[in-house]
From TrEMBL:
It comes from the Eukaryota. InterPro entries: Euk-Arch_PrmC-MTase, PrmC-related, SAM-dependent_MTases_sf. One of its GO terms (cellular component) is eRF1 methyltransferase complex. GO terms for biological process: methylation. This is Uncharacterized protein. One of its GO terms (molecular function) is protein methyltransferase activity. Keywords: Methyltransferase, S-adenosyl-L-methionine, Transferase.
Length: 212
């Protein structure tokens, strides 16, 4: 009987960030559970570079770094406090994660370098798509909740390597089936949408692959 590999339980401490960083909750655990089930497939890619966009506390990318010790793990978040928290989570768990403050991948040269992509992005609808406060930007998804995701999707083909996998977390108001169709229209194999109801919200985790 095959023993399913699991992530080690990770530590985090967000006390220094005055509530400016999203606390890991049920949606984070949902993400980790899905990644756990895909670990054999991810290992078959022998990933050189793993990227998380919207790292928050850093729990997801640090968990991946613990398993993929030889991979370069990079986290990007628009919230400077989240970048600090991600590095701190990595240190607490003795993993290796680099964190960069940025607006998606703007200004970064990552052409076809990403083997595993984690999109853990903003998903809450807001009255305005343009907010000056970086903490507010860390949860604002624009008028329909998916404005930021729609900015990122056109860049994915240039971002991901020839054989790669990506995961995108969304909630029902961001039309996950529509996002899936957009990914397929770009040439990705998208599907395996897992739906889970957590704290009265329906979460959807979309897996999409390129070349596998």
């Amino acid at each position: 009987m095959e023993i399913k590999e699991k992530f080690q339980e990770h530590l985090w401490d967000l006390n220094a960030y005055d509530g400016k960083v999203y606390e890991p909750k049920e949606d984070t655990l949902f993400f980790l559970e899905t990644l756990e089930s895909d670990l054999p497939m991810i290992k078959s890619l022998n990933p050189a570079t793993i990227l998380e966009i919207g790292s928050g506390s850093g729990l997801v990318i640090s968990s991946l770094s613990e398993v993929f010790r030889k991979s370069f793990c990079l986290a990007i978040d628009i919230n400077p406090s989240a970048c600090l928290a991600t590095v701190n989570t990595s240190k607490l768990n003795k993993t290796s994660v680099n964190a960069v403050q940025g607006d998606l991948i703007n200004g970064m040269v990552l052409k076809n370098l990403i083997d595993v992509l984690i999109i853990n992005l903003i998903y809450l609808p807001s009255k305005s798509q343009i907010l000056d406060d970086s903490t507010a930007k860390a949860w604002s998804g624009g008028m329909d909740g998916k404005a930021i995701i729609e900015r990122l999707l056109p860049q994915l083909n240039d971002l991901m390597s020839e054989k790669s996998v990506g995961y995108l977390l969304a909630i029902s108001n961001t039309s996950p089936r529509q996002i899936e169709k957009m990914l397929e229209g770009m040439g990705f194999t998208a599907g395996n949408i897992q739906i889970k109801t957590l704290t009265s919200l329906n979460y959807a985790l979309i897996r999409f692959t390129k070349g596998i």
